Amino acid sequence: MTQFVPIMHRVMPLPVLWVLLLVQGVMVVPFLFYLPPWLGVVFVLVLIWRWRVTHGDMRKAPRSLIVLAMLVGIGGLLLSGLRAYNLDSAVALCVLGYLLKSLEVMRRRDGIFQAYLGYFLTGIFLLYNYTPVGALVAIAMVLANTLALHAVTADQTFCWKRGTKLSLALMVAAVPIMIAGFLFFPRLPPLWSIPNDERGAQTGMSDEVDPGSVASLAQSTEPAFRVQFEGDPPPRQQWYWRGTTLGEFNGRVWRARFRDRNRFQWPRGQLPLAQPGAEQFEYSVLLEATQQHWLYFLDWPTQVRGQEAYVLPDGRAARRNSLSQTYRYEAQSAASVTWPNETALQWYQRLPEQGNEALRQWGLELRQNAGSDAAYIDAILNHIRTEPFRYTLQPPQYLSADSLSDFWFDGRLGFCSHYASAVAYLARVAGIPSRLVGGYLGGTYNQSGDFIQVRQMEAHAWVELWLNGQWQRVDPTAAVAPGRIDLNLDDWLSEDNPSDLPFGARFGRNLGPFNDLRFWWDSVQYQWQVSILNYQQSNALGLLEARFGRINPWHAAASMAVFLGVLGLLMAWFTGLLQLPRRQPEPWASLRRVERQYGNRHTGETVSDFMTRLAYEHPGQREALARLAQLIDTLAYDPQAMLDASRRRDLKQRVEACLK
Amino acid sequence: MRWPAPLQRRLDAWVSRRLPPGRQVTLNQSRIFIVPTRQGLLMLGLALVVLLVAINFESSLNYALGFWLVAMLWAAVHLTYRNLSGLVVQAETAGLVEAGENVSYSLMLSSPRSRYRGPLEFRHEDWGQVGAEMDGRDTQVTLSRPTSQRGRQPLPRFRLESRYPFGLVVAWSHIKMDLDAWAYPKPVEQRLQPVGTEPEGDVSNDHFVQAGTEDFHSLREYQAGDSVHRMHWPSFSRDELVVKHFVDYQAADQWLDWHALPGLAVEMRLSALAWHMLRCQQQDRPFGLRLPGYEIEPDKGQRHLERCRRALAEFGELR
Amino acid sequence: MTDIATVTQQLLAQAGKVVSGKDEVVRLAWVAILSDGHVLLEDLPGVGKTSLAQTLGRLLSLDYQRVQFTSDLLPADVIGAQVYRRDQEAFQFHPGPVFTQLLLADELNRATPKAQSALLEAMEEGQVSSDGVTHALPVPFHVIATQNPQSQAGTYPLPESQLDRFFMRLSLGYPDLESEKGLLSGTRGRSLLAELKPVLTADQLQALKAEVETVKVSDAVLSYVMRLVHSSRESGLCRLGLSPRGALALMTAARAMALVEGRRYVMPDDVQRVFPAVAGHRIQGQREHDTAVLVQQLLDEVDVIAA
Fold first, then answer.
1. Is A241 in the same domain as A312?
2. ipTM value for the complex
3. Of A416, A418, A522, A658, which residue is the catalytic one?
4. Residue A631 is part of which domain span?
5. Partner residue opposite B165 with nearest CB, options A154, A575, A577
6. Is residue A293 flagged as an active site residue?
7. Is A416 marked active-site?
8. A122-144 confidence digits (pLDDT tens)
9. Neighbours of chain B (3+ CB pairs under 8 A)
10. Does some domain include residue B310?
């Protein structure tokens, strides 16, 4: 007798194993860009094993081998320097598991498991790459896994062409509902906070700047953020995008007063902000994920509107959670502001006791010669202009304890951070409160998208000095390289010193079509960000919350249940499992009522037979029932009587009477 | 899945009412049931996890992915439903076998429009699962199951299901075909008793005589023990010891008669008749079958044997 | 215009004098005649088949002829033959007994298939042809054929295709106790036949027949008839389902029945009432089921009211 093999335990045929292998490749390769490269090696090893399997050596990998591989893999993860508890390591572990699980994929259940894990990994992949290209890759991943699911189910009858067609059909058919869900499902705040939600490296200005760090940023052509102005943007020279304010100096590194590390010290509550002058700018910023907390503004910020955005008193705004996602906020800046009284000026005057003695002496001397603080600063900038200082992307590394002195007197080669650092130091030597500002300078206006794109390459550092009761911007870079203020770094360098440029920035600079394409692609990405990635958040949720009050997990669960319920009902209705109750017309409704009272009519019984039987069972009702039978029969079968409303009324009344 | 007995009875009754048997069954809305499989529910769970990721990581694209997965489950319902919808199952032929052997039923699957319907599974505990791939207009399926007793072997109500193409949902129908196979009795050797009402037949061949008392046949030499009453006296006068040899004539065609097996139970008699049939067939002798109220004229050959076996199998059924 | 319900009452009352206790059979036969159909009476000898036929012929004032079918009956004995007339020196058609308005074909299945088919052809076409000359039969023309049960020896059973030509198959059955008592005690029976008064003229009969067509059939009833017919073909109970001609006959009979009941529209009750007589001889079970059982099963299984 044929024994019954439970479906999930059926062994898959070779072509299906091939499909699974291919799908695995599609899934793993995109991850290799984000994870330690040795996972690629594991992939190749798995591939070799599976190759054997698909060539007929239908054996599972022995358990010991899998355990060993798992241990080696975990060891590898630790050695790769991934921290124990963050998303990167969790994902790496997941991918490793995905790879090793496939060693023993043999039965249908395993195949399904692989496909489902594949879907999940697709979601994870989208956390890393949410560009349009990433979305295309994700679609390919979904297709691959759907194909795998199909192959597993089709079993012996699998055929590439039909499988691909069906998978595509399924995906396309699902699109309308997906769109509906995407548009109408409320975006919810995180149900719980994810610890160490860090994906990839930190980018942008950090809250610690040493002279070399900005120069390394300048090697990257990645976009940092995009700004869209309401109305006209300010003139190009004023595109100083402010990020971190660094007020603490230890002789080499500048640090922010409120740092990411000790967030408990952050001030709470509303703080006095600079009062805006007449000329104001309204704009929105779309900030790429930086894994940091700092938001960027046009100098000088006066207001910020964004989810959990937080203004700090040293001219910065931060977000409680680090920016693991593209983040959009609206802000207001003024060309000029009046500052409230600074209460912590002495904080901006502190210097380390030791180090850079030569520079200190030089500064004190210069201050004595200059009549005022302002003249002193002018003298310093003049010094930079007249002496052979040079602005370069590849300065020497000033590693000694007297790095500033070395730069000022010997090297004279530096990037913006070197100059800013030296000038701020010199100001403090003379007792002038000073601080470094890290941010970006310049940007590219994109005509088609009407936004300014700022790349990492535009990273910049400048100085702020407290003079005449307010903070004033002093940019020493303007002294050493006046062109940099008007031009983006790459434009400026390509005129001045092209060899400093990173290759990517140099390539295709002067090809018109290529530039157009780049602008077009930038604007596509911007639209993608604004309309897809940042869909809703404010509108849909705001509307919903206004109506139903604050969204909490229970509401979320309830709305999800309602969504699925509606979907289920639709499905049931479509397939005929669910039939909407129809109102029966007379005389059938009356007949039904009689049946409910006295028991059902038999299948082959005519109405009069039925009534006769009832009359026999209930002799008291004999005449009423006979009359009913006659009425129902005429109403049902006599074309002339059918439309007679009075008969229908008569029937209803009689049924009422009969049923009492 | 097993239900408590009364519930199971009601369920069965309901299924029979909703899905009456027929020679030809067309699968339509009222006959096809469809629900997500465990695998499909898992997909739903997966979609929820992806949505959770979307919420917690504020990942817009994961919202899209999550809803996509849910929507794919929904779309899979249509694709799977299509596999069964409009399918016509037609009873073709059913076999005739000896009781205890496997009997097979053949069904024809056809579809008004030529369409690939993927692998379909016919399930019943008697045969486990039998698969059929439906590509194009029609295909034939053979189901087989063991028989235990002589008589009618109706094709039991079986389950026809399809999980194709993604296994996320299963569409099925319980089908009861009006198709009967027959099992003839297992041959058991029993002696036939002569029956008085043999119809006359021509004796043309010594083959069909046996020693008896009725008709004079020939003379043969006396042997010790022969009855004196059978002495051929005229020969005795010539000093020859010769006895008369009598025979019973047997009809040229052997009648296998129900009444020739008195004292046996019904099934035993049928088994005996089956045995004699088989023997006649092996000896290439013609035979006729006579059952109460039914008669098959003597004949030879495989077809005749089948016909007689069928008569035995159907014995006792409403005719 | 003649009121058909009254006519029916008179007819039943009159016929009841001769064939008592068989109202329903008489009514069905009346329905068959209204529907312009032929009737097959299948029953044991001596239950009054001939009386019924004679009674109907008389009551409806139809010319009546009777042919006893035997195994040596020739087609010419039924339809007539060309006879040489010496005085005219020419062949002349000598019409057979079939040239009448009501023909009683007694013991039809005793005749050879050849003779049977001569009659059946005449029934079907309303004319006979002899030596290439076609002769129209009178109007109306009805045949009431009687037949002994099939199992009897020396019979030539009518093939299915021929059976279909009979509009109804009726069976009288033994009389009930009351009627049998009357039968045995009185002088009733065939002698009464002569006393019967016609209730209709032939022309009136034709007019009534025309009315059958005007009886209305609602969609609900049509659907019921269709489901019955469909079920006879599809349910697996029957080897041979109801033919389209059978379905049409069923519909006509139901109409006539409604008319006989004095209604101008058909009810499922009418369909159920005529169904055994109309369908009984047109369907066949998987095995040799009693078709009466089969017919009842169909009526029981098909829901009168569409779901």
1. yes
2. 0.86
3. A416
4. 588-659
5. A154
6. no
7. yes
8. 999 998 888 889 999 999 999 99
9. A, C
10. yes
